[in-house]
């Protein structure tokens, strides 16, 4: 091929590439131009639900578009994960998975149809929150150690509520059982509200949930806070001891990230990450989250993936070692 013709052909190719690039609109330029949905595995009133709604409200104000929460509880998070993975990857269906979905679910259900790293792109971090042990105010015990002794002396032990089988609240309860010898039996509930109802009715004696899910009941006096599974006491609940004060090293922190279906455009991911971190910097939202015992962290997509990998490395061995008890049924009273 003659040099002039070769140069002319290369110029045409370069021009064609530039034209094609300019023809592709920046997807995030007008995003969002219609309502956005956020799927959560939490039932109404659960920790994930409460936090998701606070964040959704702030994003809605920023975007000037409705942001709706869709609750898909069940199957240890599989129901929500499948619904989110099947959504159109256009940025209009987002997903807030929890540590349960990433770490516990794959160990309990080996034939999962969902791979959290293959089927999703992780946009950013939302918040982390410790688990709490709450008991009925009718129980005359003032410390975790006294409560453990009570469960060992009571015929049949104590039944405790936790948000579904193979959830972090369930795992936290089983950690306590194994490390202290407490005679407690897990009873699965579809959400914190149902568990709180039976706690108030005397059908169960203890509930394990995130601080955010129990904070209102604690302040209202219908739940006595026994201990919080964090490394230090919370500023909003300074009189509530940590589990680690009685059991050194005991910690169970739930966390939430914001994700989207795989193949969601990269510029949309970047836009949502920037806006998420923007609302998480607002003092009013930070205050509301901290009142619920939730602590926001502003991370990039890369930092979020690194965080998930580290949590996976730390928790998977614990899940395998512990195992999970089969659900029980509380006695009729």
Structure description:
By secondary structure, the chain is α/β, with parallel strands linked by helices. It folds into 2 domains: 35-129 and 254-321, Bordetella uptake gene, domain 1 (D-Maltodextrin-Binding Protein, domain 2, 3-Layer(aba) Sandwich), CATH 3.40.190; 130-252, 3-Layer(aba) Sandwich (D-Maltodextrin-Binding Protein, domain 2), CATH 3.40.190. The chain has 11 helices and 10 strands. It has helices at 3-23, 47-63, 78-85, 99-108, 144-153, 168-180, 192-200, 211-220, 266-280, 283-291, 301-322, and strands at residues 36-40, 67-71, 93-96, 120-135, 158-163, 184-189, 206-210, 224-228, 253-261, 295-296. Strands 4, 5, 6, 7, 8, 9 and 10 form a 7-stranded mixed beta sheet that branches. The N and C termini lie far apart (93 Å). 43% of the residues are buried.
Q: On the 0-100 scale, what is the average pLDDT?
A: 87
Q: Low-confidence parts lasting 5 or more residues at pLDDT below 50?
A: 5-25
Q: Give the biggest sheet.
A: 7 strands, mixed
Oligomer state equals: single chain
The total count of helices amounts to 11
What level of helicity do the residues show? Answer: 40-55%
What is the strand and helix layout of this fold?
Layout (H helix, E strand, L loop, with lengths): L2 H21 L12 E5 L6 H17 L3 E5 L6 H8 L7 E4 L2 H10 L11 E16 L8 H10 L4 E6 L4 H13 L3 E6 L2 H9 L5 E5 H10 L3 E5 L24 E9 L4 H15 L2 H9 L3 E2 L4 H22 L11
Parallel strand pairs: 1-2, 1-3, 5-6, 5-7
Antiparallel strand pairs: 4-7, 4-8, 4-9, 4-10
Structural key phrases:
three-stranded parallel sheet, 333 residues, 11 helices, alpha/beta, D-Maltodextrin-Binding Protein, domain 2, 2 domains
């Amino acid at each position: 091929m003659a040099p002039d013709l070769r140069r002319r052909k290369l110029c045409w190719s370069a021009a064609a590439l530039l034209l094609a690039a300019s023809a592709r609109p920046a997807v995030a330029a007008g995003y969002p131009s219609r309502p956005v949905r956020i799927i959560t595995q939490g039932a109404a009133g659960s920790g994930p639900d409460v936090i998701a709604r606070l964040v959704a409200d702030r994003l809605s104000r920023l975007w000037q578009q409705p942001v709706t929460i869709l609750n898909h509880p069940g199957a240890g998070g599989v129901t929500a994960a499948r619904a989110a993975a099947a959504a159109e990857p256009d940025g209009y269906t987002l997903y807030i998975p929890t540590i349960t979905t990433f770490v516990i679910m794959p160990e309990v259900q080996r034939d999962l149809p969902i791979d959290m790293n293959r089927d999703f792109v992780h946009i950013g971090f939302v918040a982390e929150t410790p688990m709490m042990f709450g008991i009925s105010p009718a129980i005359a015990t003032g410390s975790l150690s006294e409560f453990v002794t009570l469960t060992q002396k009571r015929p049949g032990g104590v039944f405790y509520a936790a948000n579904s089988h193979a959830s972090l609240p369930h795992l936290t309860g089983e950690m306590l059982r194994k490390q202290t010898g407490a005679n407690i039996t897990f009873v699965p509930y579809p959400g914190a509200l149902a568990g709180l109802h039976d706690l108030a009715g005397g059908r169960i004696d203890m509930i394990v949930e995130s601080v955010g899910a129990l904070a209102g009941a604690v302040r209202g006096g219908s739940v006595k806070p026994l201990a919080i599974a964090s490394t230090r006491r919370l500023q909003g609940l300074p009189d509530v001891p940590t589990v680690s004060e009685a059991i050194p090293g005991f910690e169970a922190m739930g966390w939430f990230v914001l994700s989207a279906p795989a193949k969601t455009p990269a510029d949309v991911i970047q836009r949502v990450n920037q806006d998420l971190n923007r609302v998480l910097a607002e003092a009013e939202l930070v205050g509301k989250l901290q009142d619920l015992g939730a602590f926001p962290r502003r991370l990039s997509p890369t930092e979020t993936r690194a965080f998930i990998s580290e949590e996976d490395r730390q928790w998977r061995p614990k899940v395998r070692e512990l195992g999970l008890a089969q659900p029980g049924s509380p006695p009729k009273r």
